[in-house]
Hints:
The chain is of the alpha+beta class. The protein is built from 13 helices and 21 strands. The chain has two domains: about 240 residues, FAD/NAD(P)-binding domain; about 140 residues, Elongation Factor Tu (Ef-tu), domain 3 (Beta Barrel), CATH 2.40.30. Strands 1, 2, 7, 8, 9, 10 and 20 form a seven-stranded mixed β-sheet that branches. Strands 17-16-13-14-15-12-18 form a seven-stranded antiparallel β-sheet. The longest helix is centred in the first third of the chain and has 14 residues. The protein is elongated and about 85 Å long. Keywords: FAD, Flavoprotein.
Amino acid sequence: MKLINKDVIVVGAGAAGLFCAAEAAKRGRSVTVLDHAKRIGGKILMSGGGRCNFTNMYASAENFLSDNPHFCKSALSRYTQWDFVGLVSEYGIAYHEKTLGQLFCDNSAKDILNMLLKECDKAGATITTQCEITAITKRDDGFELETSKGSYQCESLVIATGGLSMPKLGASPFGYKVAEQFGLSVKPTRAGLVPFTLHEQDKSVLADLSGISLDARASCNDTNFNENILFTHRGLSGPAVLQISSFWHPGQAVEFDLFPHGDLHQELTSAQVQSPDSQLATVLAKHYPKRYVQTALPYLGLENKPLKQYQGKQLQQVADAFHQWQLKPNGTEGYRTAEVTLGGVDTNQLSSKTMMAKDVEGLYFIGEVVDVTGWLGGYNFQWAWSSGWVAGQEA
Ligand code: FDA
């Protein structure tokens, strides 16, 4: 088979890979993107419930987890959320802020994928799908790749194969293996932004609450998020749970404040004065769905009786049970449903300005394969754009 020569080969036609390919091609580099999947951009299309939360107005280094929290600063400041918003606007893609600075397409995530494909096409970057890469060899002047679609040679090789989440959408450990082949270490990986599963004693009770969503503050390891939690038939999900899952380690408890915007003790004591004959459940049902209250009281070990029968510290104990609900998940749903993979290629071995491996000339890692993981809310795509853009200026 003939040898195809390119200046730049990008492996992985996801958010980071496509964006980087277009940028490198705009500089006049000949660029090809290789992907083993049949259909590309699967995660973009699924993201944000089909509307792609493509960035966050407030994106900054504080919204990312990494062994080196400073690493992402350079790329995020060289290509910002406003740069990407500018591009989205240039393409006339309508968008809106849903909540907390999260920007979503008005119509469809397809608008973002089509924009990336147009950017590649305009700049002359080509894309080859269903291409398995079987070997990579370093040469003096670049790299040689053996693939199911022939042999390639390139000066710069950009690895944009993402993390391990959602194997159904093409996720693979390829990027980590390439890193290790070239002597770069990989920080241990685990599923992030993922629902919790529960021990049987919790699940058997809480599964009945499936579909109920509550306002909450979820806390673990000195981090907390004020958003909703959602009871499901498998365990616990919702934005606050997904967020805190990235900070949680197996065996730890998560604390939920289920009355995050007020003082439940005060509510209960004033209700006790105003309507002493009211049942506790009746008063709580003013703040929570009735079905939740009926299940929560016995589950939390609380009695339902008229408020006048609560003495001394008893109302405080009731309030504490809701303000400080401690739950020990038995695990997470894992990579099958996780939105992201924590850990990845060690940032200490990459240049934060270019994303090139410090000790391997011409080898770049971008996007989720790198040990930089965003919170829920458009941050992960912003990292894909920012890291892809900086590599695209150099590769
Ligand atoms: P990405 O995973 O997008 O792309 C990797 C590409 O590499 C894929 O095309 C894959 O086929 C290819 N590949 C893998 N192994 C290969 C191999 N061996 N050979 C060749 N190709 C290979 N983020 C956000 O900011 N806002 C949001 O709304 C959402 N929503 C969301 C929903 C769901 C369901 C998921 C799973 C994830 C999100 N995310 C998100 C996270 C976001 O999708 C993710 O962080 C980015 O897509 C990462 O972009 P990358 O380009 O790094 O990897």
